[in-house]
Amino acid sequence: MFRSIYKLSTHFNNRCVMGTLSRGIAEKHPSMENYFKGKSFIVTGAGAGMGKVITGRLLGLDAHVFAIGRDIESLPCKAGQKMTRITVDIGDWESTYCKILEIGPVHGLVNNAGVAHIEPFLETTQHGWDDTLNVNSRGVVRASQAAAKNMISEKILGSIVNVSSTISERAIPDHVSYCASKGALNQITRTMAIELGPHGIRTNNVNPTVVLTKMGKIAWSDPKKSGPIMDRIPLGRFAVPNDVANAVIFLLSDYSTMINGLNLYVDGDPTIKSV
């Protein structure tokens, strides 16, 4: 008798568990696009390349974008769009912090601003080294400090996305300062994920291969330079700005609420880091 009661109880519990799981699986989730409506985001380096595309994508999702760049004239400007243009040099420690703190609470930050000084190792200059590290690494820290402080003050479960690179882990010639800055950024992101996670703020990297922005097309137009890299990419092509924007939008959205401290490689390569 007791065995029958035990079996009945177990069967009942199993049905309850499966019913709960089934409801969870079947539960409708709002579309990713709906998440962005009425929310605010900061994009640094919004005046060109990937930053301009990411800004445009967020505006298209009905979000308000604080577009940051060194040159106000290069920043997007279209009537009717929810955008605030802000001029600041992300490599400037104090200005970056003050300007972003003044923005107030936002739901996400995209640290896209970056520079690259192409110099052989033996000819690397102090200016090239300092400018690259100041923008690509130190600037990310300072911008994120201000944005995170504002998120925490309003208890916003936000997302910070840092644009790194596959050459954060694979070196190529003439890029010592750039490789160093992106390698540092990987560790910055991991540390931010640990320390900001308890506040409900997620921090992740997007690590693209060569991206065919306007400047990227010029820099990688020589087949002798681009060919060996292309040969290592099974998809047979370099990335375009929208490939990177897709990854950024995903990591900003509530479709990635359990992803924290990740390097998301946008390189078409499932085996080794191509570039």
From TrEMBL:
The Gene Ontology biological process terms listed for this entry are: glucose metabolic process; xylulose metabolic process
InterPro entries named in the record? L-xylulose/Carbonyl_redctase (IPR051737), NAD(P)-bd_dom_sf (IPR036291), Sc_DH/Rdtase_CS (IPR020904), SDR_fam (IPR002347)
Task: Tell me which domain of life the UniProt entry assigns to the organism this sequence originates from.
Answer: Eukaryota
Q: Which UniProt keywords apply?
A: NADP, Oxidoreductase
Q: Which GO terms describe its molecular function?
A: carbonyl reductase (NADPH) activity; L-xylulose reductase (NADPH) activity
- Name one matching Pfam family: adh_short_C2
PANTHER family linked: D-ERYTHRULOSE REDUCTASE, D-ERYTHRULOSE REDUCTASE-RELATED
Assembly behavior: Homotetramer.
State the family named in the UniProt similarity comment for this chain: Belongs to the short-chain dehydrogenases/reductases (SDR) family.
Q: What is the protein name for this chain?
A: L-xylulose reductase
**Organism, scientific name:** Aphis glycines
